[in-house]
Amino acid sequence: MAAYAVCVDDGRVLLARYVSPKGEGSWWTLPGGRVEPAEDPFDAVIREVLEETGCDAVVERLLGVDSRVIGMAESTSGSEHQNVGIFYGVRITGGEFRPEPNGETAESVWTPIAEVTGLDRSVVVDIGIALSQTAPATGHVPSVQVGGLIRH
């Protein structure tokens, strides 16, 4: 289970550049990540934003939930598993962008939403933007196909 921050401001989305510790390269994602045991996802997303970006944030609303099964062939862990992502609309309230200390986030940048489709990115970016733009009453958007510039 993971919690993701969708920070949208003036036609831009906050993205974090993830660098794989396994040498698989780097790609863009949303600030966020694993919910620790016994941690509330609401608290996890605020913690993850601070850890990864150096910025303080507040949750403005729950956007939705995405659930997907990652097959063994696509999995970096070598086994099939299910990812459940909880997406929150988040506003940055302070701090300064910096790389994640001793972590996997190299930088955080405001990116025009129109430029996202040209980036090598995690599927969570497209899901988060779709949830933010459409605000579906169900909290669910259609699946995003992985491939090309979009990865798990």
Based on the structure given, which CATH architecture is correct? Alpha-Beta Complex
User: How many extended strands?
Assistant: 10
Helix content: 10-25%
Order of strands side by side in the largest beta sheet? 5-1-7-6
List low-confidence stretches.
none
Straight-line N-to-C gap: 14 Å
Instruction: Please provide the ordered H/E string of secondary-structure elements.
Output: EEEEEHEEEEHE
Structural class: alpha+beta
Discrete helix count: 2
> Major β-sheet, in short?
4 strands, mixed
Mean pLDDT: 93
**What's the CATH class, please?**
Alpha Beta
CATH homology superfamily name: Nucleoside Triphosphate Pyrophosphohydrolase
DSSP strand content = 35-45%
What's the gyration radius in Å? 14 Å
Structure write-up:
The chain is α+β, with helices and mostly antiparallel strands. The chain has a single domain, classed as Alpha-Beta Complex (Nucleoside Triphosphate Pyrophosphohydrolase). The chain is 16% helix and 43% strand. The chain contains two helices and ten strands; from the N terminus they run βββββαββββαβ. The protein has helices at 41-53, 123-134, and strands at 2-6, 8-9, 12-19, 26-29, 32-34, 55-70, 81-95, 105-112, 121-122, 150-151. The strands form three sheets. The chain has a four-stranded mixed beta sheet with strand order 5-1-7-6, sandwiched between helices. Strands 2, 3, 4 and 8 form a four-stranded antiparallel beta sheet that branches. Strands 9-10 form a two-stranded parallel sheet. It is globular and about 40 Å long.
